Automatic annotation (TrEMBL):
It comes from the Bacteria. SUPFAM superfamilies: NAD(P)-linked oxidoreductase. Residues 16-298 form the NADP-dependent oxidoreductase domain. It comes from Nocardiopsis terrae. Keywords: Oxidoreductase. This is Aryl-alcohol dehydrogenase-like predicted oxidoreductase.
């Protein structure tokens, strides 16, 4: 397992994050945590809205808390009857964070995510409240999940102007069937130096092939009857690639995400130790260029205006000369 720096901080985080949303059984969760630690993983992702996940983690990490980078989230409602238990305002941040710290049995979390965009709370209130939590030692870093690129960019500009803590990371869905984040979110992350945690790498199980071919499942996170011919073809393409590489569909999907950008950290949401062991082996899988091209083509992705116009316009600016960009990181969308 390799390590990378989280955003523009100095914090070292592993290539793969362990998603703890499925942590229910303490025994199975312990097996998964042990496997992840033995593989060199050090970053665990949970949320206040993930049922008993925080409590299970709190018990498991009692003797190993400092070994891990622990991340949780706030904003989703804790009590539907009370409108102030949801949102990214100061009251909900404060109350939810205190609850999470108690459940996790710790005095701080290393990374607190804004779980989803709350358009009714001024972003300045959220960033100031996050900074206050950093200054109080209750969180070390902040991240944004499921939030528009312009909001994150505005938030970090505002934070830097006031000397507050900016977002260090972004969490978004990403897989070969769903590449729309390449239009605005991933270029914004590159511009602001953000790490990118990606989830839903198998498109709710569609790309695993469990709904396609002989013995296909008849139920799951998606309605199998709603799947399109294109989605079934995509699942078959991923399975074919897996057979060619003597790998599994999950390993191929994870390896694809890792190969798309050095900023990306797939969140592994395994439901068992056996599944996690399989997922962890993806770090050793190198996808040939031909395989990457086949997978890139699955989404039938186009960046859209103005990104698709930019290369021609930039060439016009440069007068036809070959000009190298100041940053050599490969642009998204290729």
């Amino acid at each position: 397992m390799h390590y990378r720096i989280l955003g523009t901080s100095g914090l070292r985080v592993s290539q793969l994050f362990l998603g703890a949303m499925t942590f229910r059984s303490p025994e199975e969760a312990r097996r998964m945590l042990d496997l992840y630690r033995e593989a060199g993983g050090n970053t665990i992702d949970t949320a206040s809205a993930y049922g008993d996940s925080e409590q299970v983690l709190g018990e498991l990490l009692r003797k190993h808390r400092d070994r891990f980078v622990l991340a949780t989230k706030f904003t989703l409602p804790r009590d539907p009857a009370d409108p102030n238990t949801g949102g990214s305002h100061r009251k909900n941040l404060t109350r939810t964070l205190e609850r999470s710290l108690r459940r996790l049995r710790t005095d701080h979390v290393d990374l607190l995510w804004v779980h989803s965009w709350d358009e009714y709370t001024p972003i300045g209130e959220t960033m100031r409240a996050l900074d206050d939590a950093v200054r109080a030692g209750k969180i070390l870093h902040a991240g944004a999940s499921n939030t528009p690129a312009w909001v994150v960019a505005q938030a970090n500009t505002l934070a830097r102007h006031h000397g507050w803590t900016p977002f260090s990371a972004l969490q978004v869905p990403y897989n070969p069937l769903r590449r729309d984040i390449e239009r605005e979110l991933l270029p914004m992350a590159r511009s602001h130096g953000l790490s990118v945690a990606t989830y839903n790498g198998l498109a709710a199980g569609v790309l695993s092939g469990r709904f396609t071919g002989p013995g296909a499942a008849t139920s799951g996170r998606v309605d199998p009857a709603s799947l399109t011919d294109h989605e079934h073809r995509a699942a078959r393409t991923l399975q074919e690639a897996a057979r060619e590489l003597d790998a599994t569909a999950a390993q191929v999907a994870i390896a694809w995400a890792l190969a798309r950008s050095p900023r990306i950290h797939p969140v592994i949401g395994a439901s068992s130790a056996r599944q996690l062991r399989d997922n962890l082996d993806a770090t050793a899988l190198a996808l040939p260029l031909r395989t990457m091209e086949r997978l890139n083509a699955l989404a039938d992705f186009a960046p859209g205006y103005p990104a698709d116009q930019h290369p021609q316009t930039q060439a016009w600016f440069d007068g036809g000369h070959r000009v190298h960009p100041p940053v050599l990181e490969r642009p998204f969308g290729n």
